[in-house]
Amino acid sequence: VLIAVLNTIFVGRAYANTPAEGSEPLIHALTELEKADWDNRWLGYGIALFGAATGLGLGAWALYGQPLAQGEHPDPAVTASSLLIVGSAMTQIVHGGMRYDERVRGALQARELLEDSSARELHTMYFLRQRAKAARSTRFWGGVMTTAQGLGSTMLGLRLWLGGENSTRTTGIVLSGLGLLNMAIGAVHFPGKPRSERILLRTEEEQ
Question: What is the per-residue pLDDT for 64?
Fold first, then answer.
């Protein structure tokens, strides 16, 4: 987070304030991508940090409290699901930082192409293709991590629901529902196209 903040301070705003000269479809694509990347650079990171904090809290609670433990022996399903939740939460922190960096670099590169007409005509389509590939990869792995965290929460919830009593059972019901919701959010990442890919396809049609 500190690196991201310092990066923001020293980089400054990347959004182009004046229109560039040259091919209109390329300018449109670069301007839209620059604004989308810069304006949303904190959005994905904020969501990732929130999900990570939630997962770490839930996993730590289950690992420390060890519900359904038999004496000194922890419940295997509770332990396994808790480790899955904690592991996916930690990867979300790293993934969110990489996503932030991807968007900042994309905005800055788009700005450079907007300012240099000769480079824009030669390199914009290559840049758009590479940006779309990076976004697809980031989107895919974001879906994997979110789905994994939801799977862990669902497993933990079902175990507490089926094996617990009273408040433990109620907690299990709630966690099962939240886990299924989390898995659904993760699954949404897989279909469809990221914005940078939609911009690429539109620009290819307009060229």
Answer: 93
